[in-house]
Amino acid sequence: MKICITSGYKGGTGKSTFSEILVYVWRVLGLRAEAIRPFDKGGGVSVVDFPAFQLTDRRHLAELINCNYLVYVVDEDPQTLEAIEKIHVLMKKEVLGVLINKVIGKPSKEFLKAYRRLGHVHVARFDEKLAVHRATGMAPYKVRSVAVLDMAKAAVRLYEEVTRLKRL
Question: InterPro entries, alphabetically (predicted)?
Answer without folding.
Answer: P-loop_NTPase
